[in-house]
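Exercise 7. Predict the joint structure of the components listed below.
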Amino acid sequence: MKKNETAKRHMGLRALNRASNTAIYILLIIISIIWLIPFVFIVLQSFRVESTYQVGYVIPHQWGLQNYINLWNSDFKRWYLNTFIIALASAVLVTVIQLCMSYTLSRFRFKLRGPLMRFMLILGMFPGMLTMIILYRVLADLGLTQANAVPGLILVGCASSGMGYYVSKGFFDTIPKSLDEAARVDGATRLQVLYKIILPLAKPIVIYTILTAFMGPWGDYVFARYVAFGTSAGYNVAVGMYSWLTNDQIARMYTTFCAGGVIVAVPVTILFLCLQKYYVEGVTGGAVKG
Amino acid sequence: MASVKLTNVKKIYDKNVVAVHDFNLDIKDKEFVVFVGPSGCGKSTTLRMIAGLEEISEGTVEIDGEVVNDLQPKDRGIAMVFQNYALYPHMSVYDNIAFSLRLKKIPEDVIYEKVTKAAEILGITEYLMRKPRALSGGQRQRVAIGRAMVRDSKVFLMDEPLSNLDAKLRNQMRAEIILLRQKLDTTFIYVTHDQTEAMTLADRIVIMKDGFIMQVGSPDEVFDMPDNLFVAEFIGAPKMNIVKTQLVLEGGKYYVTPFGAKIPVDGDKGKALSDRKIKPGPVLLGVRPEHIELAKAADHAIPCTLVVDEMMGSELHLHVDTEDGSRLIVRVPTLDLSKEERKQLVAGAKLHITFEGKAMHLFDPETEKNLLA
Amino acid sequence: MKQYSDLEFLRLSKWQKFVYRLVSFFCSIPRAIGRFFKNIGGYIKKAALAVVNELRDIGVTFVHGDWKTKVSYVVMGFGNMARGQVLRGLLFLIFEVVFIFYMITAGGHWMSMLPSLGKVGPTQEYDAILDTYTTVYNDNSFKILLYGVLTIFFIVAFIYTWRLNVKQNKLAEQFLKSGKKLKSDKDDLRSMVDEQFYKTLLALPLTGILVFTVLPIVFMILVAFTNYDGAHNGFSNNLFTWVGLDNFNTLFSWKSAGGGQSYSATFGEILAWTLIWAFLATFTNYFLGMFVAMMINKKGIHLKKMWRTILVMTVAIPQFISLLYVSKMFARNGLINLTLLDWGWIKQPLPFWEDATWARISVILINVWIGIPYLMLITTGILMNIPADLYESARIDGANAWQQYTKITLPYMLFITGPYLLTSFTGNMNNFNVIYLLTGGAPTNPAASGAAGSVGYTDLLITWLFKITTGAESQYYLASVVGIMVFVVVALISLVVYNVLPSIKNEEDFQ
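Solution:
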């Protein structure tokens, strides 16, 4: 009798567990659909050729590559190249600057370290947009706006990137300091400690930094729009494609926008998925420790 | 191969936290000195100041007569073994050991020579191509020592090198460090919190507490004649029994009166007491567990009750309560006991204990200094 | 309020404990702010003392110094060079020469113009040869302000360097007296990659921050005290000039600005929505992200990697694509409305972006869609780090799943992510992308039509700021004031949280 009861209890537990797992599966499937569906729609609509405006159905009645051909014939090529150059340049510059900053703040204890970190914290509380007005005028004086926006955007985008040192500093903090000390006793200068010991060990965070620095410019809208205002040749993809969705253009350019979205998103997403491991490591390792 | 001299060395953090007070020590060439003390006593800080990893707030450190305060660690002619080994995880064992030599731009064939020789001495030749994470704790320890060995340094610093190993391996590595010392024939400074390591390895022990040196001396000296209560309790395991009692002077002879018993302080100690004309009064009496003996009831034997008996193999640790409730530990060699006697030693048994005057240590209750030091 | 001792506290009921905690939290806010201002007093005193000490030291060094030191007071770096440190000396000297040259040729001019920000605007000059009037640009307020600030920076840097030069002489004398050797040029160069390596590493990042963040921020703070706008661009139409606190008065005045409500009411409305938005955006993402992470992490759920990848993939797609697309999807004539109309589920298009409440709810929901993957990643890492034995012991103690969550998971998560939540909150306050790309601030708030920029119901302070600067009037001065207010709000919140949450205070606690 008693044995029977315990058996029942065990059965109950298992059944409950199975029920909750089923519920979770259903939820996860719903979530996946919600998260993926807009992107599926974009892809589908980019192949729609019977109309260029928004419609009440998803699957094209007529399939074709007309939207992609439109892209090729528009300024999109130029925007794409602009963005790609900016992304590449910031991947290099931002990485160098951020690693210098975070390594220093993680490893050296100098007198101004505390005040410096506090100062940057306070500086970060000002909305960055505030500086746009003056930076635009300065860039304009240097001739780095409108059609020449690309170098200007690189300069402005990278110059202050040292302030985003938190994530990589968090990672550097996890590398034991005794490794530095051992290397210094072994006869290495601080420079040698950096490139012989720390950098090889910091590969995940280096890749994370490169990846995020590369991905950033693809979505940068506000400053790019400010600097390149009115000159299509200086646009990046975000500014250019935004202009397609304004009220007077959207009816003509909606499907082209979708095609552009696919062209922009696919390479970045593939790159991201390949390096996903490092991204997750960076986010979970460094972002929270801050 | 060098002497190390520390003069009035101080370490002050953040302007007011003093980690090391006025540290003075002269370490002779080829001496093996151990800094020992509880955690936070400043022993590691002192070592790291010698290594150049911590700035020296005040005072001077000299290695081989040269003041090294402002020298970088690499220019001080030292080698160091870290507590967590600090092996470079991305390099093979060979590269780990060769690292310092490569930085010195020594030709590869010489490096090969040196590394393989060190590996042979340490018995890690077969692991040379492995990465550190594929090694066991003991093997990592050997690599760390190997890395320090090939530097041909003047001073060999070791910061708690054995504390991450399990007990068995620790004993084995301790013996190997003694052998290594004979082979290397250089000056060693070794930091540990384990008094057994300190006693077995050192030529001289520096016992520290809260940034102060409590005593400097050979293992025999610190064991036989602890300068103060702290050293007395820190050195020796199980630790020394301390009893508050009275020192009385009767007919030119000194007695202590623990728990109502009256035990004469005879031998050298008694003589030293009278030579120094120590005034009778309250004292702290220290007796090591191994110097307490089980006795028959007699006028100077102390009655007590056995609370716990710990069988350690070669010896038995008896925790006993005296009549006023003080807990004492008695260490009895197992061989001294007959089977019958052993059987009687169970919790609750009534015992009598006694000890001899020459085994006593007497401390001033105020200053906690040894009355005879 | 009454302070309970630990033992008294333990005897309170659950409800009393909660109230006690809540009350002590709010009671500690004024104290935290008070402490801050008390500290400011301390800092000022310390700074004044430091200045006095410096001045005294400068005097003493001059009186006791040898002739090399005394010459160095005028010719910087002379002492260094005379004592064999040629490289250092040369750098000092070059800096001094450059500084003097700059001050004579340009700096002095900009400084002298700074109080007025220019006197003569553009004028029409008659060109006799072409027989036309051409515009001649004279003073440029923008440049005067910019270079004026730059010159002040330069002067401060010069004073610091000069002081360093004096100090080095003093140290060098002391060194030589005590029989030590000075560092040679070679030592100096070598130490740049060793002891002083941090200076080498920081040189580039800090220069960037100084020129592209500090300088612009100082400039923009100053703009808040001028009348710089589209009609006074300081160059091609009218010069701009100092107006004192007028702009702050405008923002905080209760007077109606043009039509509808006053500036201060508009500002208050936007600020309130900004705070509500930041709060909801942060915590919906946080809890839902944690929930999704826990579902995927649950024992017995298969294909963990696949679920995670599906979500993470959306992190990679640039936000402007996903946000713009979704924005259009929910538009009046977007996919959702058209489909629902087709199916006959609705008669009228749903006013996702046309109605204030609909729009506000929509942006928060879509923000969840954007934010969950990222939060899922962050929380997954931390959830997996919670020691499993905590759960095991809780289960043995008889805790059910919900209790395990509230007693173990949540406190642990909140402790670890405390600082992250703070930055995330302030980040959301300034979350330009989500709002601007989704709604552009729409629907327009008619009552606020008097304020600069076309203020909408979903506008945050940051999008308002953007609109102010890009509109036809480009009221930069007002944008500056709004920017300063954003800073003040963020700083206040951070200050309170930092002082109240014990876990954030110590950087090393989290290492």
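Discussion. Confidence is low (pLDDT under 50) at residues 503-511 of chain C.
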